[in-house]
Queue: 4 jobs
Job 1
Amino acid sequence: MADPVISLGGKDFPVPMLAPKQNRIVVPAISRLQGVKANAITTEQYDDFLEIAFLAAQRGTPALNKVDFMDMPVTTAELFAAFPVIIQQTGIFKRTDPEGEAQGPANSLIGIE
């Protein structure tokens, strides 16, 4: 089964299950973002979104470096759209069932409005 893909800056990045070295940063950042509203996001929260997306993209594309990532034309909409895939790939939240419906908090962990 192929890894899910996120699209950032017009490029597709496979996102394998994250390893502990990513999860130790990604999981706490996800917790900090709980309940974030897109029209009231702080710089620190935006930085968390960027760090989460970078680590997820780099997991499946190890040659991707932070400087190149930060220069990519990544939209906020792309960051938000990538989030459910990244949450799923942390491995600590319930995965989607075969019918495609979320089981548990993966899609509801963070309420981006």
Job 2
Amino acid sequence: MKKPSIFTTIYPEKFIDAFKGKKQANIQNLLGSIAILEKSQTSDMSKFALSYNKTKGYASRLRYNDYFPLQNNYNKLLSGKSFQTHGGKKVLDPITQEPKKNPDPVKLGYVIIIDRPYSTKGIPTPQYFLTLKGFFLITGYNLNSDELKSMINNASKISLFFCFIKKVMDDYSISFVREIFIKPIQKVLLRSDIFQGGNMNFYFGNFADAISEALSKKMKAINKKRKEDVNKKPDSYFSEKITKEYMQLHPTRPFSDLVRIKKRDELQDTANIVYQFLLTGIESLMDNVFYSDKPKEDWYDSLVDHFYPKEESKVLFLKFGYDSENILMNKVMQSLSQTYAYFDYGILPYKENKLPRSKAWKRHQKFKRKGSRTKLRNEIDLSNL
């Protein structure tokens, strides 16, 4: 009988390479615990998994003997020493006759060791954290708002993409982030083979398209509701807004036509559309979108400076960040800016957000020799992506 997991996911059974086998619940809980707890040791994970209550939160009141067996299990899983068993005996591979191991989340690319602090006994103890692939996997968990906030906060420490999502979440709300980012990403994950050995980079464009589609639906729904509200207003509402000056602009028009024109003007009031988008979080999103058809050579470095304004905030990102996120961020920023700019055939005023030159570029300008050209760390031609 399978042990139930404290987390549920959107994924079908055996859809994830790390979840295959009888230890599925343990690995599922382990990865979920790391995502919510931040960097953690196996003792932290086991306490969390045993005492976590979705309604009351995490309350650790466990004796050592309560969580030690699970901690030992987690240690074996993360070190690749967990063997498949049946009836208390190790399961052998039919070809090699070697004992079969349970999936190793470290070797599969979901978990990394970010530190080895010394314990009270002077023993270096690994602290674990999720990779970008690991956090994408957790995006497919059915997390409540508090869990999702914790996951995004932790993911933002090693991922510029999740740092962008965190900024939108902090500026507006977690429900908006779930609608525009999380649910669209989940749809892509269900159609992908990322967690079955596929290349994550291949799906960056799909993520960008799904997110921009969600934004487009949101914008259209807001504008549709706005039009319905305007059309419900009685003629008396518009007739009261017709001034003498307005009548002089249309001297040959009957008053009934002026009422109709006034209603049309309100339906086409772009300032009001922008205001409605402001109320619903879309303007907060667009304030953090930076895209140009002709990006500067240090565009990605400037983006890093924007989302990690303090040096101490990007320590983990610089050490464990994903190199290809520049491509992901370019695709996402491009899709979002174009979705906004072309809304209802370009009726909205769109102003491109400008990024200042990066700290790296300024350092290079200061120290480079006359006539020489020093290549920036993240310099890449993004024009054709």
Job 3
Amino acid sequence: MNTVMLVIVTIGTMECAVHMPFKTMSDRLLGVLPRAIRAIRNNAVSDHWKEKALLKLAKLSLVSSICAAGAIFGLAAVFVGGVYLLSLLFPSLWDFAMSLEGMAIASGAAMLYLGARLYAGSRLQRH
């Protein structure tokens, strides 16, 4: 029963993860480096303006990193909160979910669910 409850919480968490804008966050974070390199290599701009541009790009990189970390911690909070709420009904669930075996089952279930979701999505687009 613990395994079933853990898989339910895992699927709920993965469904939340699918709907989060991770692609946008990663694009914004990875887009900073090419812009910084272009600013450094631009000989037509003074060092003063390069410093200002790099400071702005560093701030953008920091904000993007904090947003990505917040999203990941938010997903962890959804998972832990779901396990906690279900452990009020099934007291042994908490110990099982926080064990190495429970984390392995949750990780496997997450990968299987995401793989099945991707496969089903691609099959639906073909027809």
Job 4
Amino acid sequence: MQHRKIIQVQNHRSQRVFPFPPGASRGWARGAGVGALLSALFVPGVPRAESTVVDPTTHGGATTLGLAGATRADAGDLDNVWRGSAVLALDPRYDIVADGFLDPGTWKGFKVAARDSRTGAFSLGLLYSFAYTADFPMTADELPGWKVPGAGSDNSAVTQHVAAGAGFAPGDERRVAFGLHGGWFWRRAAVAGEASGLRVGASVSGRPADSLTLTLAGTLPLLLDGSRDGENLPWVEAGARWQVVEPLALMADAALPLRPVDGLDVSLATEGTIAALVPVRIGYSRCAGDVRHALGAGTGIVSEALNLQYGIWIDLGPGTGAAGLAAPRHALSLAMQF
């Protein structure tokens, strides 16, 4: 496997509140399992404030944006440091990533991450993110009496997140890997919404074939203070990536909160590469909690030394009613490999 370092600079978008899995993770199915997943998919349940790909705690990159969050089974996505570190151990490599992101009128900040899965069978990943918003959404209980819900509250907030993930992949072929992950987030707001908490979890990933990667992860919240809906829920997430042929891959992610069961969040995406130089991505995500839908798309240029990526994510809002179409989120990522 190629030894490489990646330095990324991103102008960026999102993925989902850290305690609230980023974007919904996996989709895989077999027999009765298919029926269980489909039935969960169409159970709307309790509404949530954030949609599948939005993550005020740890923003994803342009690639994640273009794939509508379906990167749980991607061994190259360092957001898996805190979502399910087992998949990172499947590929022997070194990565260093620095992202800057800007969602017009909402979030701005940066993220740095590093991973070593090449030195031995054990791998280690570290991540830190910083995000600022001028108006963090408040709950009905937090909103001052003179403010109208949805009209803005001047509640500026800073959210930070540190995380680590370890993995173990026995054998030279690295067909199966096991991982442990954990992260601490803290949010400070001018008016309301202060919170902090720890999330820990475990994961398992495997490659039953060279072209297929499967992953399954669970995350449990602990020591929460001021947490929001979704931030205080344990989650089970799964993902699949199938490299159909060398230039074309299909991805499916799903995430299910365990308390209460309010439906399955799903992301589906495909990625193709033209002339081994220009990737083209398109994805779809559905957040079951508030029945929101979103589309992602992206492209870029990939060469031996330079990796430039652009992604756009469009929140289509609820499945019914006229409200919900929000301004698109854009991301630009520049990576150098050496």
